[in-house]
Amino acid sequence: MKTALVTGSTRGIGLVVARDLARDHHVVVHGRSEEAVRAIAASLPSATAWVADLGAASFEAPALDSLDVVVHAAGVIGGAEVERTTLDDWRRVFEVNVFAVAELTRQLLPALRAAEGTVVTINSGSGLTAGPGGSTYAASKFALRALTDSLREEERPNGVRVSSVHPGRVDTDMQHELVEREGGEYDAALYLEPQSVADAVRLVVDLPHGATVESLSLRPTRRR
Ligand SMILES: NC(=O)c1ccc[n+]([C@@H]2O[C@H](COP(=O)([O-])OP(=O)(O)OC[C@H]3O[C@@H](n4cnc5c(N)ncnc54)[C@H](OP(=O)(O)O)[C@@H]3O)[C@@H](O)[C@H]2O)c1
User: Fold this and answer.
1) Residue 16 within a domain
2) Domain containing residue 25: CATH number
3) Of all atoms in ligand 1, which is nearest to the CA of residue 167?
4) For residue 158, how far is its CA from the centre of ligand 1 (angstroms)?
5) What is residue 2's DSSP assignment?
6) How confident is the model over 198-209, as pLDDT tens digits?
7) Domain presence at residue 221
């Protein structure tokens, strides 16, 4: 059976991606809460748990000889205008959204190469365009895009595929947090369902190995 590791799979997009991949993969469920990770792993047909804080100074990836898929879904939302964003805010967002993705991928590369695996980064529309008030988040996602693009070219000779998935706003805790901060009403109909992002990841993963989805952008049909 193929193996997939999904970061941030205790909630939101990561959880739905993990459930979807669990249909035909052994899934390494990841999160910060041991209780939550174990409960989700126990609910899947074949899964193991990996607990790690990706914002920590260091962490150790699970020991795997072979890894078919890694989906980097863990992420944090940024702060406000540059004027009100501290150095700590910048560091907190980049630690999780960029540095942890680079470091985890580095540690997993031998296992990914062994399987000729696929790396999927859950980026964002904010990794393609940036507006006012979103500098830390957008800058981290632009950086993630650059990391993903470089890695793709580096790993081509090793048969490892690297894909960047850019969803617009998705109906998860992250959007509730954002709407609360921005003010206004939460209308779930204006957002993508997490399952649509899981479907996009599935498309990326299931494409015959000779083809790579380099970048995939999806937006809510009825967005504002
Ligand atoms: N929601 C959107 O509109 C949207 C749109 C485009 C892209 N994205 C991206 O999609 C990804 C998932 O977002 P989401 O909406 O599912 O967010 P979410 O509901 O807020 O969930 C975030 C996930 O990231 C994990 N996480 C956060 N900080 C972590 C840390 N320091 N160490 C380990 N795990 C950590 C969380 O774990 P805990 O449960 O332990 O907190 C949780 O599983 C993110 O990269 C986000 O930028 C989201």
Assistant:
1) yes
2) 3.40.50.720
3) 6
4) 29
5) E
6) 999 999 999 999
7) no
Interior angle at CA 114, CA 210 and CA 58, nearest 5: 115
The residue range of the domain holding 37 is 2-208
218 domain-assigned: no
Chain position carrying tokens 């804080």: 53
As given in the structure block, the two tokens for residue 62 are 């699970």
Active site residues: 137
Query: Rounded to whole angstroms, how far apart are CA atoms 176 and 171?
Result: 8
Residue 44 maps to a domain: yes
- How many of the other CB atoms lie within 10 Å of CB of 161? 24
Q: What gap in Å lies between CA 27 and CA 2, rounded to an integer?
A: 9
Question: In this predicted model, what pLDDT tens digit does every residue of 17-59 receive, in sequence order?
Answer: 999 999 999 999 999 999 999 999 999 999 999 999 999 999 9
Q: Which residue CA neighbors atom 5 of ligand 1 most closely?
A: 169
CA 77 to ligand 1: nearest atom = 47
* Domains identified in the chain, total number: 1
Label residue 187 by pLDDT band (50, 70, 90): confident
